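Attaching the record inline, Q. Sequence:
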Amino acid sequence: MKKSTYSTAARRGITLAAVSMASVALSATAASAAAPANTTTSVWDSLAQCESSGNWGTNTGNGFSGGLQFTPSTWAAHGGTGSAANASREQQIAVAQKVQASQGWGAWPACAAKLGLSGGGGAAPQSATTPQRTAAVATQTSVPVRQVAPKAAVPAPRHVAPVAVSGQTYTIRSGETLSKIAEKLNIAGGWHSLADANTATIGNPDRVYPGQVLQLPA
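Structure, as predicted:
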C-alpha cells in the first residue's frame, strides 16, 4: 500500500513539474513576442552619407556638426552633451532617434526627400531601399518572400522659378548660414530667394561652407 502511494505521489510530482516547465516556456515565448524589435541603423548611415559624406566627426563651422548635421540647440534639446562632432556614431543615432520622434523626417528635409523618408514623429526609420522580410507566424519555418526592386525616390523640386541676380557677390564667413546672410543683407524673399539665385553652387540650403561665393538676387 505504501509503495503504491509513493508511486502515485511521484507521478503527480512529475506531472506538476512538466506543467510548470510548460508554463515557464509559454511565459518566455510571450515575453519574447512582446519585446520590441531593434530599430535598424542602416537608414541613419544612409542619411549621414547624404548629410556629411558619412563623416560622423565633421564640424565645418557653418552651424551644423556631426554625421547627421545637428545644430547645437537641437543636439542639446534632445539629450546630447558637448559637441555632436565629438560624440560617437551610436550617441548621435540615439539623439537623432529622439529628434525624428519629435520632429519627423522634416528635420533633414533635403536628404530625407532624397532617400524617400517621410512621416511624422514616432515613425520607425525605414527607407525605400531597405529590404523587408515577412515572418510566417503559423508555421515553424519562414516562407521566403519575393523581393521587388524599389523604385528610386524622386524628391520634389525645390526651385519653382529662376531668380534674377544683381551681379553683386558675397563670400560666406565661418558660422554663417543662408538665413543669417539673408537677414544681414536684407535680401527680399529671405534665404529662399538667396538659395534660388545660387542653384549652380548650392545643392542643399542647409549645408554651406566658409569661402563659398554667393550671387546676390537683384
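The first strand starts at residue 165 and ends at 171. Helices lie at 2-34, 42-52, 72-77, 89-103, 109-115, 178-184, 190-196.

More tomorrow.
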